[in-house]
Predict the structure of Ion channel.
Amino acid sequence: MANSSDGVPDTGFKRFRSTLRLLYHSQSPTAQRFQFSVLVVDLAIIIFFVASPLLREDASFLWIDYSVALILGLDLGARALASTDVRRWLKQLTVVVDIFILMTLLAPTLFFNLGFLRILRLWTMSRTSIMWRPLRRHGFGEYRETIQAVINLMVFLFVVTSFVYTAFADRNGGIAGYVDALYFTVATVTTTGFGDVTLPGTFGKLASIIIMIIGISLFVRLAQAIFRPNKVHFPCPQCGLQRHDPDAVHCKACGIILNIPDSGNY
């Protein structure tokens, strides 16, 4: 049996883990094609999550649900094997959310009332390099903060819409379907407040207040990301300042010379 450079036997399992590590984290053409394929599958899963309230009564829903669970489980297992420290990997918030999403997929009836949290898959995906590497290659890396703000707002809207739909539909509040729940969420988040659709009871009023407060905060965050002068994330090696102008030569805080990579390579 061949030995690796560190003296550990080079087993087939170890080679398999090394291959996964290269596919998930390297910049080779093969790895980039693999990462793009994973991104496409993730986007398809997210579309299913968004459409699941409308598909739940369909006879094929459970088959699709379990198929998505299989894909997500395989992805989680592969990422665990690609990790150099599985325990530390398991402590990441994005991984915890993905594991919970997998549980809701495996038991769609038991977790019906919490199934709307599956849309958080979009949020966890936006926290991984798999999503941003293709965007950087096509010149969108400098818009990462704006795209992230848009994703945060979209995730919030769909989570709240699904929550309102599952918790308040057909309870004399005017919410008879998913579109009504989305209409109420957008009207509440934007503080338009037409009043034709409301959440009944004290719990409904408290939920509306929370939706408005968080929604306004996310809108402000999005506006800042759009209208604030564009910056790049590059930690200053001396003072640690994180954001600089794309063409900055010196750090504005301490004056040290910076070497910020071009946006196409950063």
Remarks:
- Residues 29-55 form the longest helix (27 residues).
- The chain has three domains: 1-139, 141-228, 232-266.
